[in-house]
Amino acid sequence: MSLESVRAFFAEKAPDISVIESAVSSATVALAAEAYGVEPARIAKTLSLRIGDRVVLIVAAGTSRMDNKKVKAAFGGKPKMLGLDEVADITGHEVGGVCPFGLKTSLPVYCDVSLKAFDVVVPAAGSTHSAVRITPERMAELTAAEWVDVCEVRSQTGVSA
Known about the structure:
With 161 residues, this protein is of the alpha/beta class. Helices cover 27% and strands 24% of the residues. It starts with a helix and ends in an 8-residue tail after the last strand.
């Protein structure tokens, strides 16, 4: 279901972008980097958070780490990761395949500035075996995302300028 909703999203909004599938799992940043042949920082991970009574998605570079103080300052509350069942119920995507495309529920999407270090990033596409290659700017545009600075880059390894 989830992979299909992402395919439908791109068919309608960006038919030039194709979903790519992998025979191996891409459920974690490390697995995704290996499956799609990119450095871990280029994997655009999607964090599903509850902040007060709001649920938001934050898309960030794979090697970045959410900074709770920055999130609290930007969103006015303490962030809490959604539980596994909640993630699938709200987004329509299973953990490991969560992305800002083809969502079951309309949610606010935020792109962390850590993504701007790359010309192309690789976010999941609704399943643990699918992804897309997309520019960070295009991803933000297609998902009506706002840019925020809420993460710290943990490692500069593999980050291209």
